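User: I'm writing a tutorial on reading structure tokens. Could you give me a worked example: one chain, its sequence, then its tokens, then a sentence or two explaining what the tokens reveal?
Assistant: Sure. Here is the example chain.
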Amino acid sequence: MSRIAQSINQRLTLLGVPGIAGLGILVACVAFYNAAIQPMQQQLTERKQLLNERSAVARHMPKMDWRSLPSHLPPQAQADELVANVYYLAQVAKITLREAEFKEEKSDKSSLVARHLNFSVNGDYYQVRQFLSSALDEIPALALDSISFQKSRDVEAMLDVKISMTLYLVNPEKSVTPR
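And here are its predicted structure tokens:
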């Protein structure tokens, strides 16, 4: 046996079984930290930095005149396409859309059109959260009005969720007259 191996064997003998077990646990903890905890900390730091950058950009944006809002909204002709995108995002988040109700409300005084969307969905909390986050990010003209959670009677970890959103559109046939 080499000299190094003899030295290691002597020290391990001095430690005994409890010392070797403790040393093994210590090595396992270091490996777990490097493999799991450290990447999550780095990811969290990157997300915080991205949020700080986004909020800094939002703080420095010039205030917009509310009368120019219709020029930033999608036309009413894209409503069905945008609702289909909401369905697609629900499918990507792996939640089940059980019921959907749509009601369109047109303003007599302006070109704004509000399409109210009411959904009943099934999924776990994280799936619903992912769905809402992606829908609101991808469709800026979509606003979350209300959400209510209730434990599902069928499956333990699932939720029955009622979501009410409004999709704001503009009717290009109506002229906008700022006051």
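What the tokens reveal: The chain has a mean pLDDT of 85. The longest helix spans residues 3-60.
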